[in-house]
Structure formats: C-alpha cells, structure tokens
Design a protein that fits this description.
alpha/beta; Rossmann fold; eight-stranded mixed β-sheet; six-stranded parallel β-sheet; 13 helices; 19% strand
C-alpha cells in the first residue's frame, strides 16, 4: 500500500473533479451508440489537474513502481444475482490480477446496500490504494465517498451510476436509459410491422433504485407514453431468475390472456418468466402470443433469441475489467482519466425483417442503430 501516492492522487482527483464540475455533470446521461461513443468519451474527459500536482503524482508513481509494491484494490461487487454479474466479476478479477501487479480484495455484497457501504468502509480502514464500486443503488453514497476522499483513496465506479456524490475519479458502464429507449423503439417498429394494434405490457423490473432499473424503466416508459401503450403492471424481480419466475407466476394469476408483451429487465428474469409461461401453457416468442423483450444478451440469453423464445435482447456489456485496469494504470502514471466511459452495446433480435431502429437517445440526439440478427456465431462470441 502506498499512502503517499494515494494522497497525491486524491489531490489531483479533487482538482480535476472541481474543474469538471464547472462544465459537466459526472452522471452518465449521454448517448451510447457505437458511432457517437468516441466523441462523447472525448467530451467527458476530465479536465487536466494543475501541472504541479500531476508532477507530484508522477513522481510518487515512479517511487511506488521502484519500490515494487503491489497495488491494493478493494472491489465492492453488487452480488451474484445473474449471468451478467458472473461475467462482470470474472472480468474484474482477470484484469485486476497479481500478474498485473494488483492485490484484489473482493467482496460480494449479496445485493445488500448496507453490506456494500460496510465493505467500502472496511476498505477505507484497511487503507487500500483504490476502491472499485458497482453501486447496488444509485443513492446513499455521499457520506462514505466523502470518507474515502478524506482518507485519500481514489474511487472508481463501474456499471451502475451514483447520483448523490461526485467524489469518484472515473466511471465506466452502460447508458441504461438508451437501452430502455431502444427497447421501446424496437417494439414500436415490431408491432407496426406485424400489424399488432394493441400493446398490453407487463414489466418485470430489476433491483428497485439501481440505475440499471431506473434507466431501463424511464427509457421504455417514454414509448409507453408516446404510443399510448397499456402498461398493465411493473413489479421487481430483483434481476434474478427466481424473481422473474415468481413475478410472472403472480402476473399469470391476475392477467392471464390480458397481455401480449413482457419486458424483463435482464436475461435471468426472462428465463424465470419463460419457465412460468411454459408451465402455464402460455405461448411466447416469435411464434407465440407474448412478445418477450430482455436486456443483457449473455450467452444463455442469446441462445434463447436464436431459439425464438426471446424476441429482442438489448445488450448490457459487463466486461469492464480492462477499462478499470487502464484507469488505475493511468492514475499510477499520473495521467488524467476519462470521467466517464460508455461500453459499446449492440441490440439483438430473433427475426431479420427489421434492419435498424431510429430513436431520440438520452442526449436528445436522433440515432439510427442496427439490429443484429442472432446466429450461432453471435451466440459463440457472447460473454
Ligand atoms: O447493472 C447491470 C445489471 O445488473 C444487469 O442487467 C443485470 O443482469 C445485473 O444483475
């Protein structure tokens, strides 16, 4: 552990965050389509800290490298609720490895916000060099991030966003609102193409208060409103297969025969919902009565798209480990880092009739993005 370096890094971080706060918000609110990403990342790049501070940090990094110390990183992971989460954990563990000079302290917070705050406080007490957080929920962070800041420990946020503090050096993750908007735009085009005049939708949402849930719900709801769709109900399945199945079982009791769309906010919920519909004899997917929309596009999700059981799957990319390592390396070298980085995320479909979707993204820009028809090669390349 290298406290001198951490303290200097935080000085640089505070300078750069202050500079950045004057011009843009630290929250991820801009669009994520592949063609706009580079420009947005550029625009989001944190302003350079004062020259003297950079020099001090670089000097400290050199000293640390010369001393051969490993870098200690505490990672407060959300939990193990989904295939996506497993891929995320694997990605971070592979990148922040001993071979890469990192001693990773990993805590699975089991989807418990209090446990996650405690994990971060323990990392602060241990005096780790960096803290990586994937925040279960987007609020409740101000106090503990101030404590990390006071202790001189840089915080990196991955995947989900934090709404009530800007005391972190960098964020890398997904534009969840665009995922929800894309799902709405696809459904609008799909029902028009199929001549379906009424949309009666059930939503199985993710963990309430997570930015993944908030963004996907808000994005899809824009279409519910503009297209005057009937959203019958929205209940949380907590991003788990068990949760998706339970919610769908209860929906079937109340609404069987009354819905023709189910929006599951991740693949595992979709697997549970599909099992429940199967057991109840409700037909779904490309040849069925119920259109199934999902998010994540993990291997098992894309297998279901290929089989026609899920109609469309909007990718959420969990492979943030290499970006995380890159951020740490840059900070170690005294370089400035991008304040926010968006993952590239394609949209996958089962049928080849619609080629693309056009929608106004969360930055207010009209974008046209391709729909990728899933074949075996796509499944084989998935995470
Ligand atoms: O925050 C990302 C979301 O969390 C993924 O969609 C989901 O699978 C995970 O549990």
């Amino acid at each position: 552990m290298r406290k001198t370096l951490s303290v200097l890094l935080t000085a640089a971080m505070a300078t750069s965050m202050l500079a950045a706060c004057g011009s843009s918000n630290t929250q991820a609110t801009t669009a994520a389509p592949a063609e706009t990403k580079a420009a947005e990342t550029q625009a989001a790049t944190t302003a350079a800290p004062a020259e003297t501070t950079v020099a001090e940090v670089t000097e400290a990094a050199k000293e640390a490298a010369a001393s051969g110390d490993t870098i200690t990183v505490g990672f407060a992971q959300v939990g193990h609720e989904s295939d996506w989460r497993t891929a995320s954990t694997n990605s971070v563990q592979a990148a922040l490895s001993k071979e890469n000079g990192i001693d990773l302290q990993f805590v699975d917070c089991d989807n418990d916000s209090a446990a996650q705050l405690e994990a971060v406080r323990n990392f602060i007490q241990q005096g780790v060099d960096y803290i990586v957080i994937d925040p279960i929920v987007s609020t409740g962070w101000d106090t503990v991030l101030t404590e990390a800041d006071d202790a001189g420990i840089p915080v990196i946020v991955i995947d989900r966003t934090i709404d009530d503090s800007d005391k972190y050096v960098s964020w890398v993750g997904s534009e969840f609102t665009n995922e929800g908007l894309a799902a709405g735009a696809w459904l609008k085009a799909y029902v028009a193409d199929k001549g379906i005049s009424e949309v009666n939708a059930l939503v199985i949402s993710g963990t309430t208060g997570s930015s993944a849930q908030i963004g996907r719900s808000n994005g899809f709801d824009k279409y519910v409103e503009s297209e005057k769709w009937n959203k019958i109900d929205e209940q949380t399945g907590d991003f788990t297969q068990e949760g998706g199945q339970k919610v769908m079982e209860s929906y079937l009791k109340s609404y069987e025969g009354k819905f023709n769309v189910v929006v599951c906010q991740n693949d595992n919920e979709a697997f549970g919902a599909i099992d429940a519909m199967k057991a109840a004899g409700v037909s779904y997917g490309v040849d069925g009565d119920v259109i199934v929309i999902s998010f994540d596009a993990c291997t098992a999700g894309l297998q279901k798209v290929l089989a026609g059981e899920i109609n469309a799957d909007f990718q959420c990319n969990p492979l943030q480990g290499p970006d995380c390592l890159n951020i740490i390396k840059k900070l170690e070298a005294g370089e400035t880092v991008d304040q926010k980085t968006f993952m590239a995320e394609p949209w996958y479909v089962a049928e080849d009739k619609l080629k693309d979707i056009t929608y106004t993204n969360n930055s207010g820009k009209e974008v046209t993005e391709p729909l990728v028809v899933v074949d075996q090669a796509v499944v084989d390349a998935a995470y």
